Recover the amino acids of this structure.
């Protein structure tokens, strides 16, 4: 079923159906990033025209991106992210430019929360990461309690014969 979707997208792009797989995937990424941008714009209550001005991207081009007809460059995504006041990384991930970041179940839960804005998610993830780094540094700096510096093993006063 996915292959049929790719072929339809490839045909819509006027390539005559040849090599539909890779072309379809690119078109699919374009649709995904476009719908993501539209969703972010709607949740920010910004019109297409307003985002166009804020991002410095022409209104028709932005409309084509949202409809999946154009796949924007990283530079254009950066401008759109600035206009939406979200992280460019979020757009790069959606566009397939960057791999989806890892971070375990907490980070995934934050990213999946639809009630938070991208900015709120990023702030939460930054705070969470700083706590984890701090705890990791503290754990590395603290001596292990079961190690005897004299080489006695577990620290118990057993016999050394």
């Amino acid at each position: 079923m996915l292959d049929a979707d790719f072929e339809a997208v490839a045909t819509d792009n006027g390539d005559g159906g040849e090599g539909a797989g890779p072309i379809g995937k690119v078109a699919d990424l374009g649709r995904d990033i476009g719908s993501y941008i539209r969703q972010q714009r709607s949740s920010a209550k910004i019109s297409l025209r307003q985002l166009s001005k804020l991002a410095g991207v022409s209104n028709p081009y932005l409309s084509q991106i949202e409809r999946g007809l154009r796949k924007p460059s990283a530079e254009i995504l950066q401008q759109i992210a600035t206009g939406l006041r979200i992280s460019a990384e979020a757009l790069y991930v959606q566009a397939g430019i960057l791999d989806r970041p890892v971070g375990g179940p907490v980070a995934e839960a934050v990213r999946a929360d639809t009630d938070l804005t991208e900015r709120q998610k990023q702030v939460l993830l930054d705070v969470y990461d700083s706590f984890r780094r701090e705890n990791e540094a503290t754990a590395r700096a603290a001596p292990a309690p079961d190690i005897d510096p004299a080489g006695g093993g577990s620290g118990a006063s057993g016999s050394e014969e």
Q: What stands out?
A: Confidence is low (pLDDT under 50) at residues 1-20. The first helix runs from residue 2 to 12.
